[in-house]
Records
---
Amino acid sequence: MDDTKDFGTPSANSEKLVTLNIDGVDVTVPEGTSLMRAASVAGFSVPKLCATDSLEPFGSCRLCLVEIEGKRGYPASCTTPAADGLVVSTQSPKLAELRKGVMELYISDHPLDCLTCATNGDCELQDMAGAVGLRDVRYGYEGENHLDSKKDESNPYFTFDPSKCIVCSRCVRACEETQGTFALTIDGRGFESKVSAGNKDFKDSECVSCGACVQACPTATLIEKSIEEHGTPEKKVKTTCAYCGVGCSFNAELQGDKVVRMTPNKDGGANHGHSCVKGRFAWGYTTHKDRITTPMIRKSIKDPWQKVSWEEAINYAASEIKRIQQKYGSNSVGAISSSRCTNEEVYLMQKIVRAGFGNNNIDTCARVCHSPTGYGLKQTIGESAGTQNFDSVMKSDVIMIVGANPTDGHPVFASQMKRRLREGAKLIIGDPREIDLVGNTPHIKADYHLKLRPSTNVATINSIAHVIVEEGLSDQNFVKERCEDESFKIWLNFIKDPKNSPESMELETGIPADLLRKAARLFAKEKNGSIYYGLGVTEHSQGSTMVMGIANLAMITGNVGREGVGINPLRGQNNVQGACDMGSFPHELPGYRHVSDLATRALFESAWNAKIYDEPGLRIPNMLDEAISGKFKSLYCEGEDIAQSDPDTQHVTHALESMECVIVQDLFLNETAMYAHVFLPGSSFLEKNGTFTNAERRISRVRKVMAPKNGYEDWEITQMLSNALGYPMNYKHASEIMDEVAQLTPTFKGVSYEKLDKLESIQWPCNDEFPEGTPTMHVDEFVRGKGKFFITEYVPTVEKVNGKFPLIMTTGRILAHYNVGAQTRRTKNSEWHDEDLIEIHPHDAEERGINERDWVGINSRSGDTVLRAKITDKVQPGVVYTTFHHPVSGANVITTDNSDWATNCPEFKVTAVQVTKVTQPSNWQSKYQKFSEKQIDFVKNGEEKVS
Ligand code: SF4
Ligand code: SF4
Ligand code: SF4
Ligand code: FES
């Protein structure tokens, strides 16, 4: 597929076809296609400047004029629809003269510094001047012009140079149509018209640096600073963003082996050519000076690191694992993989544990984010994954978002969702905070914001279902045909109970009953209702109950099994779905098959030539508890930073200190690595082959763009460790690992790198029945056969507010940063967010004498920390909110070890706290500063033993 071809205008969706003749060639296109696109389909290229196929046609530049037989004048081909029987000429002497005249006007007000321009050779204005044969400008260059306009360099990633602007409006339209931010306008009229970011610098404007305007600009007016610095790229390699669960496809553009730009791929199934600031611009961490590329070992965390050869590091790690197992037993070691790893890496991690360590002590960071999704969806509908693709949202009539903040957490999908909302879909938001989609984003306003109290999700979803049942709004046919009768009857009895009514629950949830009833009616009455949710659902003591409540709601309203509907978990990190699919939970082999299942074990035992233990292994919290009690002694941790990301930091670091050999495989000396004895330097996503699976079950290729700076791809490191342990692995390429996954996992049966190269991406299940994948699941029946309703009794959390801890703290993310921030903090994204703040309602702040940016101490039952205050009414009284992107913030020093009853997913979203004005950092922060400075010093001043 040629993802660079620009057809000028978007494709039309009509099923009706029209046939016309263009320059002597008959061409058939869907009704609604522009003449420009039809000409492009026929193989002709009409000159254009203001048109591009990612944006609706605008018709301003007048370069794309054509002649139509029997019609007067010269219509713009970008805005004129193709019609049956038209005879169109794209070239004639008159058209050439007109186009030349248009180009002359543009060029006479252009710097013409092409030879020294950073985009020389990659500029549509230059191309068009050539295409229309412009050689000279009759008007001269001395007239009134914009050549002295001042450059705006405020954005860290791109420059705006108005002297090169042709006012084609592509940037303005990209910001509106593609991104949905409406940060740009054209100010003034005629000669005075100019692009404006609201009369502010880009950095201070509404701009969120998604790059859509830079992508759309046909000149060097909006241009990446990396291109200004290094020049235009020579080649490109298609790969997948390593940040969030949207899974955007990108072209890594290179000069030699240096990446100079990442551009979103038009054929990307998840992003269709769009991007956000992280994937588009924040890749500089891959070459950051903090990166460690030489293996290191040490006996104790009080010792400086010793830089050693790969052989020595691997042998040392293997000998320690063997020694510990001999001394403390087979169960004393385990591993944690990460959703940042590729599928192939995760697969090898669980394989080395099961076949090499001989136990099932493998867990993943999904434990602390979406494990309730896996559990809840498996129970109710039979598959631990979202039901739709992202495009499905374009057919939703009502969208319910619960506990998710898509504009910050899943920005590219948020843009698509905003497009649908601007088209008229209704919106219900369930969130304690006023997220942007509530009404702080242009042209979007939620129909209902259910501002529930943190921890009352289940009470809220039960009340919604109660109203739907009580008012006879359920889809009885769907329930009758698609769901288990018995479980439904039991559930019906439960949900009808007046205790679940919005009036009964109002005191708990804080949502006015009348408002909740209206929202429930809206959701039930619209034809296609979809539910999107995030960590605000799962990271609760009733996370799994809430996921089942969401599934119950989707089933009772018949909203599963077609486009526009469904249950859509918005996965946080890039490969949460894949990490779970690949068997990285202690109780499940790849494909969510329980380790106690004899047939599954037999299949893997025969393929792996190893015995698999039949009891579930330790979960992360169990590993930590057992480390403190002296039974768990060694951890192999790849790509995960539990010392920052897991709750109750002091408990985690105590556990790490209690172990005898902590092996960390990562890019940087992260917080966990500060407690490690072996550091195995990892490779970045640009340096390896593999696949990621996004929130839509879409498997996409990660391609090696450059050689690994550490010498090895991560899967090779795990393989070396396995071989040193005595369990042989001999993969030559990551594709062989995927072949093994396909051979052993029914839902991946048809997946191969060859097919991924051909199709770009595949949504599992991919098997004999669906060889090209499955965009929508549970179409005719649920994966488990009939859908099963579960009782979702609301049980208030044990984390109670009282006089000592009167506020509830909840946590979340912001656009600029990704999870623990280890990557994004090492990019210019920190310019937007260089510290975590505590958001507090003006009323609570005033009561405590707290002013904007005051230092405040936050105390919980687990610990205390100090952050600066941000006073905002986006949080409700009684609730404070913070992010956790900077280790020194210690957000997880205060979170408790309460967790989901079914999966142990921590209750990050509910911590009772007190907030007071203070003047100095917390004890923990002071100790942390000293400890981390020392550990960094241990790397800098470590002994070199590498030959
Ligand atoms: S970078 Fe994105 S948000 Fe910013 S002005 Fe351009 S299109 Fe708009
Ligand atoms: S900045 Fe670029 S895209 Fe925007 S109006 Fe100017 S030339 Fe067109
Ligand atoms: S961070 Fe997410 S939304 Fe942004 S480019 Fe990457 S995958 Fe896409
Ligand atoms: S490309 Fe058609 S008017 Fe500009």
---
Amino acid sequence: MVLSAAVTDIFSDQLAAWRAYTETPWGRIRYQVVEETLRRETARLGPGLRILDVGGGDGMDAVPLAVRGHDVTILDQSARWLEEARQRAATANTRVRTVLGDLSEPPPLGEFDIVLCHFVLQYRPAAALDVARLADYTRSGGVASVMLPNPAAGVLRQLILAGPRAALDDLDSEITNAVTFGHPVRKIPAVELDATLGQAGMPVVRRYATRIANDLLATNDLKYDSVYFNDLLALELALCDQEPFVRIGGMYQLICSKT
Ligand SMILES: C[S@@+](CC[C@H](N)C(=O)[O-])C[C@H]1O[C@@H](n2cnc3c(N)ncnc32)[C@H](O)[C@@H]1O
């Protein structure tokens, strides 16, 4: 499948829609669960880590890491998103280093203890080269965290929202729609990424998921109730590292270790 060259331009255009998404209950669940999984991953490696967030955008994952004292760099191809990240860091009384650049021509930034690449690869033409670039940025013994929408969960979500015909159509399709950006993106099953990471010398050592419970709920109204939301978030946190739930979360997170 060929994704248009203009695919990355949609990010700057859709910044307002993205902000709105991050404030929804399901957006808050995504970021709060990942803040917890990254807290666990950083705790394994120690304080004062060098962290690179590739396609880190407006810093939603990166800024909480900087607040905890890590040395955080965001590499992104959108100047507007990077400006947003710097503002977010300033509001949180911290700072992040921002680098305007494209993963297709990765700038020399050295090696990092942790490399994040969350919700970028599905917009890119093929995963293998990008994964090799992530490996180049990761020091030996360091880890990378890669997150993507889970195509398997997408089938179940279609079933819940639109019925078995829609689920069958989704199962057969190689692409899906990025809801916030209204743009077709590549489906990358966890098993495929797992193999690609292994081939790049970064075997998967842990897996997490988020929006496991959220995406099984057909209606959203109750999620705006604070008591209900807190229970839902507590459930997501309880399930985020548990088999078999990690296989059906709306978004999967693979942690791989550079050998
Ligand atoms: C869906 S957003 C995800 C932002 C962030 N990682 C998160 O999960 O909140 C995708 C981000 O990847 C960036 N991006 C897309 N293609 C890129 C490329 N080729 N090089 C660098 N950044 C890219 C976009 O500008 C955008 O900030």
---
Amino acid sequence: MLLDDSLRGVDLVSRFDGTVVDVGSGTGAPGVPLAVSLPGREVVLLEAERRKCAFLEAWAPANARVVWGRAEDQPVDWAGVAVAKALAHPPTAVEWCLPLVREGGAVILWVGPSAEPQRASVVAEKLGGKLEDSPPGFIVVRKVGPTPAGFPRRPGVAKKRPLA
Ligand SMILES: C[S@@+](CC[C@H](N)C(=O)[O-])C[C@H]1O[C@@H](n2cnc3c(N)ncnc32)[C@H](O)[C@@H]1O
């Protein structure tokens, strides 16, 4: 069930302080269930499609706010945790999410069994990140340095020309 799938990340997200940003929130997974489960945390529901943002506005709990925009156009190095489910292949998702996260924070991707963590790891190392031991169904990347110059690349480039 969709709700259970979002909630299996609560413990993992709780290990990192700070604002949680759900990148490509769509209809709110996993960001809305995480916000309800963690009422003390600020949650940003970041979504590129305006129509989906209108839907999210209607369902966002008090500790969540909706931002209409693409990950590549956001400020860098501010979130404690960036989460994403079904956003893009992991190498692209890491490239979109990691710049948003401050040092010491993490990207947590919900992934299927065919995900290739090694490819995500290659991208992470180019963007100030490091692949962590990750529980099944997740890829966890820790932000260990600031976002390097040149990132994020222009909107759409990470998908067209993935780094791994
Ligand atoms: C397949 S949907 C997944 C939605 C939700 N996370 C879920 O699991 O149901 C991917 C979403 O990411 C959004 N998206 C794609 N690229 C994005 C980007 N670069 N920045 C922000 N949102 C993006 C799309 O508009 C879409 O709503």
---
Amino acid sequence: MKESLDIRLQAEKLAVSPELLQRYNLPGPRYTSYPTAPEWKESYGPDELSRSLEASNRSDPQRPLSLYMHLPFCERLCLFCGCNVVIRKDHEAAGPYLKDLQWEIDRVAGRLDRSRRVVQFHWGGGTPTYLSPAQMEDLFHFTRDKFDFASDAEIGVEVDPRVTTEEHVRTLQRLGFNRISMGIQDFTPIVQKTVRRIQSYESTRSLFDLCRAGQFESINIDLIYGLPHQTPDSFARSVDLVIDMHPDRVAMFSYAHVPWLKKQQGSFARHIPQGMDKFAIFRAGIERFTRAGYVYIGFDHFALPGDELCRAQKDRTLHRNFQGYTTKAGADLAGFGVSSISGIGNEYAQNYRALEEYSAAVRGRRLPTMRGLSLTDDDVLRREVIGRLLCHCVLHKKEIETEFGLVFDDYFSPEVARLRELENDGLVRLAPDRIVVTSLGRIFLRNIGMVFDVYLRKPKDGPLFSQTL
Ligand SMILES: C[S@@+](CC[C@H](N)C(=O)[O-])C[C@H]1O[C@@H](n2cnc3c(N)ncnc32)[C@H](O)[C@@H]1O
Ligand code: SF4
């Protein structure tokens, strides 16, 4: 009880002036990796990934695994969508894709020690429940035959309530899925109409109740703030409906407007709330969720106080990967399917983002790796610093000094100078032995990470990232 009260007080202290917002609302990465994906090299390919998988077995044959599978299909495109999707009204492409995916699973599993336990497994998309229950069952059994799952593995899936049937839900539960994440975004009719995603509260609620009755351990709901025609009041009404459902976690994403990548987003550009208007919507959401007892973890995540994300943040074991915040630090992440990303030891690898290229590689019996990176020592150090600040909201300099054999204030002297400016704006507090992110700093976490990102100092050809808020 005390905890939610403290958080509420923090939320009410979020005084942001237009000048402050202008200073910090810049294009910036979400730091699901460091270095970020635009820095990865096409010279990193299947051979490098194979070597990295084998090296990870040698260096730590007990290191757990996290598996991510990208199921990119959706029947219709939501105009705001920034995900890697393949739109197919007819379902004919799914069968051949699943065959390709099985080949990739088989090939990667063959390079990983069977003794390595899968502690986390996730189907993301697109819309995994675009698949029929029988297809989901096949894919799941195929994977379980190739890997050993820990008895308490987190097994999660993203679903679109508009296409998810009772049979889907029952199948997922029978297979052992214990976490489910539902896309809602916003219930306001004009917003839904403008982004071409019509989704009633009633049908969403009945799917939610079905999942609750089925005892998923954790249910997450996705919302987006900053969509066209949203206002603080209209968004607050959607948030209230979500609070009434009582999900365990909420992802309240900042709408990422990237029309240079997703042309369809241009169609409603003039109706998108900007600057202080967008901030007021965010604020309406954060106030309502924290008042209802949710803890703001950072970026877009909220969780109920008993949730393990909150516990992990407090005891400083929280971690960040391509799926956002996670409690599974120390696992190697193997990604499967079009556009998916692997993080093995100190290397990143990404698969082809276009379905045709992915399939062509697999059918040519090659791992479909499109690009990747082997981290330098400096990358590893900065990844650790950024990760700790963004996950734990505190960084103890001594810990970094001991782990990396350096003097923090000497190595990071330009960064510490820059942090003083952020301190003047109330985003961080600097003590001789630590850096602490304030309540205000929690909503500008990307900017705090950016201080330590050396790659942002290089000139860029064009826009790469969405705005930080
Ligand atoms: C793969 S989808 C979730 C499952 C399902 N496809 C659905 O939409 O219900 C992942 C989530 O990404 C978020 N998302 C998609 N495009 C976005 C954008 N441009 N900006 C911010 N969030 C976005 C949405 O909240 C969406 O629920
Ligand atoms: S259903 Fe989800 S993944 Fe598919 S287009 Fe809409 S937001 Fe994107």
